[in-house]
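Honest question from a wet-lab person: if I give you the sequences of every part of a complex, can you actually get the arrangement of the whole thing, not just the pieces? Trying it with mine:
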Amino acid sequence: MSHNQLSANGHLQHFLSIEGLKRPLLTEIMDRAEQFSSISSQQVKKVPLLRGKTIVNLFFENSTRTRTTFELAAKRLSADVISLNINTSSASKGESLRDTLHNLEAMHCDMFVVRHSQSGAAEFIAQHVAPHVSVINAGDGCHAHPTQAMLDMFTIRRHKNHFPDLRVAIIGDILHSRVARSQIQALATLGVGEIRVIAPKTLLPSDCQTLGVHVYHDMEAGLKDVDVVITLRLQKERMAGALLPSAREYFQCYGLTEQKLSLAKPDAIVMHPGPINRGVEIASAVADGPQSVILEQVTHGIAVRMAIMSMALGSQAEHKEVLV
Amino acid sequence: MSHNQLSANGHLQHFLSIEGLKRPLLTEIMDRAEQFSSISSQQVKKVPLLRGKTIVNLFFENSTRTRTTFELAAKRLSADVISLNINTSSASKGESLRDTLHNLEAMHCDMFVVRHSQSGAAEFIAQHVAPHVSVINAGDGCHAHPTQAMLDMFTIRRHKNHFPDLRVAIIGDILHSRVARSQIQALATLGVGEIRVIAPKTLLPSDCQTLGVHVYHDMEAGLKDVDVVITLRLQKERMAGALLPSAREYFQCYGLTEQKLSLAKPDAIVMHPGPINRGVEIASAVADGPQSVILEQVTHGIAVRMAIMSMALGSQAEHKEVLV
Amino acid sequence: MSHNQLSANGHLQHFLSIEGLKRPLLTEIMDRAEQFSSISSQQVKKVPLLRGKTIVNLFFENSTRTRTTFELAAKRLSADVISLNINTSSASKGESLRDTLHNLEAMHCDMFVVRHSQSGAAEFIAQHVAPHVSVINAGDGCHAHPTQAMLDMFTIRRHKNHFPDLRVAIIGDILHSRVARSQIQALATLGVGEIRVIAPKTLLPSDCQTLGVHVYHDMEAGLKDVDVVITLRLQKERMAGALLPSAREYFQCYGLTEQKLSLAKPDAIVMHPGPINRGVEIASAVADGPQSVILEQVTHGIAVRMAIMSMALGSQAEHKEVLV
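Yes, you can. This is the full assembly:
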């Protein structure tokens, strides 16, 4: 049902959702990210791939961390970056969103990185931009956070060989998590053997069955023999409502401790999209422990976003010259 | 009465007002913008003309749109840009504006782009900066907005051949509009055949006669046979006072509809400095219609600002090498 | 007692405090700043020394002026700069400072420029960062402001030949001034002949004796025959407390006027870290007078920060190639 993210010649134009993307494309993103990954540890962490391109961070929802990773990725590709916090800008002058977008396009901006609290916002914007503009979804409501999912897949691939052999468990607030939704789609597309979700009934979406996941309400059963444990951030605002007891009770049932982690495979990796609530969804001993790859995820986030941005801006040709 | 904007050798040093500038200089700005215009549609939208120069956006009045166009223009000239929102900075530490300026000069900043709610602010600053610093007026009170006027002239020249043959009508709040004031001066300097203003009496300045314009209070008469129709933004705050009836009544009298536009020449172009109030000063059908060049204005705004910035920073010499 | 600022091979890794640094290192900083100083007056004020490096301004305390000088210094070294105002970012999502830092490190950021209202903050951060990250103290509480002290030393060296021959007087709120603390340490390390502080008893630290300075409560005696007069900014908030009478009374006793300055050597220079309170700690006639080097300090601030940043990022090797 998603807006077509591919251009007529089959290349990535927008990156809005994992839904509808085929396995070879996800693999291409990860392969290209692998190349960028080596750049990040060089003395000069910059490539001239997007020199002269203008990327606009359109953040309708504040997120320093995500904005920073996109800004760094863009700068390391040598693009010019403009960051607009839409709440405090032309919206206050009564200009419609569509007019704001058309103005930015008229300024020859090449890419909009969109973060919005409403599901579907990035797709709406992609439907209304000029053909030369790419839209990247940096998180829209409870809908999708596809660059996060891709950096997670990249991190898994770095540690585990073959997706079909894997058992992956996602723990926490599946219902409200755009991260979980995109992760499940990516894991399924990559052919992961078994996808499990572990959550209280109040934090599970009603369409769980159709997602092709196995549902667990119990950590002991759900973590048994998994290769990858993904913990989700618990939004504090959920605690205020009727959906959840206290943070302490949540931690007792669904917080990832060393003890519970011991039920997974001995070489299982632990992931989290950040920022973490220590002692709520994860114990510090696990977050900082030997199986945690949480900070690696942050590192890979730059390379994966560089890959997606450079693919969407169609720099296939130059890419080869620079990197090979 | 304006501060001398030209250096001893006749080159542009500051750009504060159209007043006092001669036709050849306005033409030179448009000619140079023409060159930059082709750059904006290239793959790499950047020239190294102002590499190593530091441009400071000094915005005492918030304007995301204008700040963004200046920032993009500066970055595409390869300058370094610092944006200071003066309300929230050293002003709060009780430092005088003059001290702030002297400090920025001491840091070897080369250009101040000034936006201020008080008329004369940019000129005041230009009078007090060191000789190596250029000041660009990005809008001061009700006084002037000369870069907007120049991008409007550039847009007109792109569509209409010969300024002396043209009839141009400006509609709306002439009294409070720094845009209108600068447009009228630019149109007059370029020798436009007939300049008309169309507005209710309450929104006309008392010195209309001395401006050399023909005054109309009626759209039907005023639009008759014009080549260019410029609509102005109606500041919502005017509606609160006694100057105006409701937005709906204003639209009925002075809003540009397809019907009223049909009185102009068939190939007349429609302009607006943005952001537009749809259904107040202009109907959506006109704003988005075939005669509208509103988004072109935004595009040309980058090229014209690149032209003015590079001329003011005296890069005539290098310019030739890079562009020819 | 300070955290070791030098790496194993004796190079500068962090720059947290003047305390513990040896004279040759301070001299090396000034020598290198001398080279950068000539760059700032060139047409192209940029060197590619830190190209591809990422520098993060971590400002927990707002300071447009200091942030701007670090940002300019970083950009003129061709580094990428990210500015984070920590109050309004992830802190609001409940992430701990340590997690924020680890995330920035994971994004391959190379340097943190830290400003914080609490003494010891920069040192705390330096103790917890990864080995590849450098920390620069841009002012922490009442503790230290070492880059300010170094630009002051550089300014003195530009005007006066031989530190041991000099008498330097620092006037004002020594007790709360991180600037004064760092200046005294730098002056002592460089072997200045006599360091005087002039202040009311309520604005002197109790450990004055151990600082190796001569204490004066009287301007007439304290200024007699000095070569350098350093005035400090009087924080307005001190006036509210019991420490001080009114600003007017303070000016009468400790404000630097032309008359009082005449007691110093005829070629004495007058310094101030800025922003100045005219008519409180210094008279306008002195601040703008022929002996004032206050704006020179601002200019040298860029060169000195470029020197420290490039030394801390270990670009000794490339440095030679570019500058020699």
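Two things worth pointing out. Chain A has two domains: 23-143+299-323, 146-293. The interface with chain B takes residues 51-54, 80, 82, 84, 88-90, 93-96, 99, 102-109 of chain A (CB under 8 Å).
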